Automatic annotation (TrEMBL):
The protein, known as: QORL1 protein
Highest taxon above the source species: Eukaryota
Length: 228
């Protein structure tokens, strides 16, 4: 894909993977528009960070969850500022209640999840992150005509869940960015996704090994662009 002249190589490299996912979710699946309320779960993740920036760029009102104090501080430093950050790290905050309060009881127009809990706490596998919201919470906070964009490939909706979504006229879409590689129609649209996200500084090649070790040890949740 030819790179637009105004986009530097570092920005292009950083935008393609998570930028592709965020653009697919917000533009094609959710069709975000100015004034829409958007909930980005786990906003400090690489995908969440770029989704917040893109939603702001489209004029949406953004709410995000943070899984730690460090994540909360990171999200509050993002520019342009304005995302309402909900800290769920202590497990004392009800995400659905907070979102309904933030939207005056109307609910959120678009939800981008980072996975969901499908079962109760006792039945959930120990490996699942307990900071993820339950699927019932997302259905509760979703507004009339809302769009739930999920990355949960094994999402199971029971009849009561479907009934609640039906009453709200809400929709559920599955975010699978690999579809772009399988569809001849979509491949030409990669050019639309090269925009200007807020990035950390690229790291020089001699620091690449240290950076990779940090990522592999899960000591950092971010993508790094290496400058040759």
């Amino acid at each position: 894909v030819p790179k637009p002249e105004k986009v530097c190589w570092a920005e292009a490299a950083a935008a393609l993977r998570d930028g592709l996912r965020a653009y697919t979710a917000l533009h094609y699946l959710a069709q975000v528009s100015p004034g829409t309320s958007v909930l980005v779960l786990d906003g400090a993740s690489p995908f969440g960070t770029i989704a917040i920036q893109l939603a702001h760029h489209r004029g949406a009102k953004v709410i995000s969850t943070a899984h730690s104090l460090e994540d909360k501080q990171y999200l509050e430093r993002l520019r342009p500022a304005g995302a309402r950050v909900i800290d769920v790290s202590h497990g004392k905050i009800d995400v659905a209640e907070s979102c309904l309060e933030e939207t005056g009881g109307l609910g959120v127009g678009i939800v981008l999840d980072a996975g969901v809990r499908l079962y109760s706490a006792e039945d959930e596998p120990a490996s699942r992150c307990q900071l993820l919201p339950h699927k019932h919470d997302i259905i509760t906070l979703l507004g009339v005509g809302g769009r739930w964009i999920t990355t949960e490939r094994n999402l199971q909706l029971d009849p009561p869940d479907s009934h609640s979504l039906f009453l709200k006229g809400a929709t559920v879409s599955f975010l699978n960015e690999e579809i772009w590689n399988l569809s001849n129609v979509q491949q030409g649209k990669y050019l639309d996704i090269l925009w200007w996200p807020q990035l950390d500084e690229p790291i020089p090649l001699y620091e690449a090994k240290v950076s990779m070790e940090i990522v592999q040890k899960n000591q950092a949740r971010k993508r790094q662009v290496i400058q040759f």
